[in-house]
Model the fold of this input.
Amino acid sequence: MPEILEIESYRQLADHAVGATITKGWADIYAAKKLPSVGTWAKAVKGLRITGTNRRGKLMLIETNGPTLAMRFGMTGVLLLDSDAGIEGLFYGPHTFKKDWVRGGLELADGRRLLLHDPRRLGRFEIEPDLNELGPDALTLTKKEFGVALTSVRGGGAAIKARLLDQSVIAGIGNLLGDEMLFRAGIDPRTPTGHLTPTQRDELFVALKATLKQLQKRGGSHMGNHMSARTPGGICPLDGGPMRISVIGGRTTYWCGQHQH
Done:
């Protein structure tokens, strides 16, 4: 599933379209599911000039001289600018292109096209998205914002893995990044957020920033230190302990039964 690092690469690709005028837009019934109708996208985008790009978590934004346009990429969505892809392949994606998997896009005056390629049909187009639904962006997250994100409303609160995946709390962290951060910080993903010690909070923030920085350089969320052990019967590459598997926050979670506690 594309996470914040993949969406940032899509945004950088979309940057190449800044300054271009949109002559046509189209969306199939899947990409238009958050819009009033299938034709809404085409009517809204025609004649707009792209003035910039932005991103909040996994939501890519296209700024124009009119409304802000947005794209969500679901589990297998990839942004294409003609034949150039925002990322070579997704860990859980098909790694191949099929015309039937193009869900819509934008045609530019210079002949280029920005396309949403999405086999699983979970990607969406939006117009003037509500950013208040999202927490602070994970790539620019400050330590103060992180502290607020980990504040429990009552009791111990949700498991820390579930808290990290809550996009209304921190925008952009997905399943792979969440597991990698907790693996590096040595924290059991089932730990109630409110039960983390001050030291654990500090170590998790350091791990969050380091994970994002290093995996961005390596090429994506699927390039973590423990990816080789994300399999039933896996062995921790750090200490040789058994990897455990559970569902936390609705996502399959892998962690080391020895050094994560």
About this structure: The longest strand covers residues 50-56. The mean pLDDT is 93. The two ends are 27 Å apart (CA to CA). The chain has six helices and eleven strands.
